[in-house]
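Ticket #440: bound-state structure for manganese (II) ion.
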Amino acid sequence: MIDETHAAGRASWVTSANGHTMFPIQNLPLGVFSPDGGSARGGVAIGDRILDLGSALEAGLFSGAARDAAEAASGRTLNALLEAGPAARQALRRRVSDILDAKGADAAKIETIAGRLLHDADRCVIHLPARVGNFTDFFAGIHHAHTAGTISRPENPLMPNYKYVPVAYHSRASSVRVSGGLVRRPNGQRKPPEQDAPDFGPCRNLDYEMELGVWIGPGNEIGSPIPIAEASRHVAGFCLLNDWSARDIQAWESQPLGPFLAKSLSTFVSPWIVTTEALAPFRIAQPPRPAGDPAPLRHLNDAADQADGCFDIGLEVLLLTPKMRAAGAAPHVLSRSNASMLYWTVAQMVAHHTSNGCNLQPGDLFGSGTVSGTAPGSAGCLLEMTRGGRNPVSLPNGETRTYLLDGDEVVFRATCRRDGYASIGFGECRGTVTEALTLG
Ligand code: MN
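RESOLUTION: The complex was predicted; output attached.
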């Protein structure tokens, strides 16, 4: 639903929110932060500042449904707000947009207390926005599935279930972490083809996976599947997700039960929940399936979802090596793709996940699967980009990479653009590889 909160002409009295920013007044993503020395609390990113919802409540800026929603979003996690659902998020969005609007009814009065309401984002510690009960990683990037499949099974790259089942596995919730930290190169069992038996040591083929993260809002009772027509009500918002992947460990351990320690070393997410409301202008029709592909089975097929269940989100992967950092170089863009490349919509993922009666909970997290395009420069991980490590990537300073080396920093960015609307961004998902623990 597009409303006055999306109007391109709306500007904020927070001047850094106008012009070139990921967080204009049309975005208003939700997160959890600690100001300098303070406790963790809920907030809204606006330009280079964060609106402190607790302080805004204390100042009496909320009433009615918006007040209830702000209370649910002002604590150490956003789970209560996620549980409250779309009406609560919409009430909060409308009022926060009013509060920050340069032409809002109370703008002059609110601006006088801005010092109490706003914090400089770069002086705050940003936390994971919600307690993640469950993390499910899908495999909906068909071009990734196809290329990765070609590397291991050239004769049969896509499994016969791929175009019927939104394939996924239950991954690890406890190792989901917020952007900005170090990811330690894991030790694990490696068995390269030339070795007869595995050994245990540092991962040699450490990779990233560029994925769209989905934050689940209201859950469902166990035994009560979510029909696809209602699925979007259960999706609160989105983030960027780096599903760090130890390819050599994965290749050896995954047969036959799938990824385990190759994935649970850490998963990073960008800190802000970009709500489904903020993304309303960027919904598009799901691209038609190629001729000859089967139609989705009935429980995954909904006309409204096919008409606007896809998101036009431009995605970017950048790499900064230690040598580039020392030379003061900017991160190098390794690839660009778009969330519209996904074969399955988010609503289809929700409907499929619950179709057996499995219960989702507020704060559950989905990964979309690696989002890759078909064009050169659009692969969402190094496995694809280097064809399984065979074709190294060249960087502008003459360095090359097959997989990540210690000290490499991986940065994901996302931007939504549409004529007539303000562009919005996701905030970065960043992580730096650090050396493996020495084996005793
Ligand atoms: Mn993944």
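RESOLUTION NOTES: The first strand starts at residue 30 and ends at 34.
TICKET STATUS: resolved
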